[in-house]
Specification:
This protein is α+β, with helices and mostly antiparallel strands. It contains 7 helices and 11 strands. The strands form 3 sheets. Strands 4, 5, 6, 7, 8, 9 and 10 form a 7-stranded antiparallel sheet that branches. Strands 1-2 form a two-stranded antiparallel sheet. The protein has a two-stranded parallel ribbon with strand order 3-11.
């Protein structure tokens, strides 16, 4: 009599089972303890860790030291890029609500931004090309993490020519909200943006970007890179803003009028 042997499940197989349980709601909040899953699947702790790593890279779960592995359920947003920073901006200096926060509030969500970091860096080649300066030219970088309901949803990093940013609130490492945006309120308004060009492309997270977003290095979550270059009335590029938006959290919406 021949004994039928059951093929041992690998990390991908276990991840597939757990993924289905998460998607169907069979696992709602937290994965069962490692000990129980190892016993259920007849596997080793190392194989189970590999399975959990697959789910973490997909953005489906997150680990908390000493507490376990939790299902990551974050409701995505639809962000109307055709309205963002256009026309009658929704900036309110008194409340500190800028146009981005106002847009998130309109969705019934809670916006926040981490304290921006400001540095003087040599412009990467792609940023230099957008600003119309030579690669390696010193520019001012202003970096922010945007959060929705407390979770990191976007990175928003802006680069400015030094003549635009120096001796202005753009150098302050704090949220600065001004009606119409900072550029419209500094240096007699000569750097106010009168035209903007958007560029969208698929993107692979760098290790630094993944860390800032609280995502594992090597994450397989699709990512959007939105680049917006602002020009003043003279046609000079005065700002290059790059928004990194995980695709599972962000839908960028454009409404086109004939």
């Amino acid at each position: 009599m021949t004994t039928r042997q059951t093929k041992r499940m690998g990390a991908k197989d276990i991840a597939a089972v757990l993924r289905e349980r998460i998607d169907t709601g069979a696992i709602e909040r937290q994965l069962p303890p490692t000990r129980l899953l190892v016993e259920e699947f007849g596997t080793s702790p190392e194989t189970l860790r590999q399975a959990v790593s697959i789910l973490r890279a997909e953005g489906r779960v997150t680990s908390q030291q000493g507490k376990g592995v939790f299902v990551r359920r974050v409701e995505p947003i639809e962000f109307a890029m055709h309205r963002f920073e256009r026309g009658a901006r929704r900036d309110d200096a008194t409340s500190g609500i800028d146009d981005w926060k106002a847009a998130i509030l309109e969705l019934g969500r809670t916006p926040s931004q981490d304290t921006p970091t400001v540095s003087v860096d040599r412009a990467p080649a792609d940023i230099a090309a957008e600003l119309g300066v030579k690669p390696g030219t010193f520019v001012v970088a202003r970096r922010r993490i945007r959060r929705v309901d407390g979770e990191p949803f976007q990175l928003a990093d802006s680069w400015f020519p030094t003549e635009v940013a120096f001796d202005s609130p753009l150098m302050d490492e704090e949220d600065v909200t001004m009606p119409g945006g900072i550029l419209a309120n500094i240096k007699d308004g000569r750097y106010a943006q009168t035209r903007k060009v958007d560029k969208l492309r698929a993107w692979t997270l760098t290790a630094d970007q993944a860390e800032r977003l609280g995502m594992p290095t090597g994450s397989t979550v699709p990512v959007l890179r939105h680049l917006r270059v602002g020009y003043n009335a003279d046609g000079t590029a005065v700002r290059c803003m790059v928004t990194i938006a995980p695709g599972d959290l962000n839908t960028l919406v454009y409404e086109i009028e004939d």
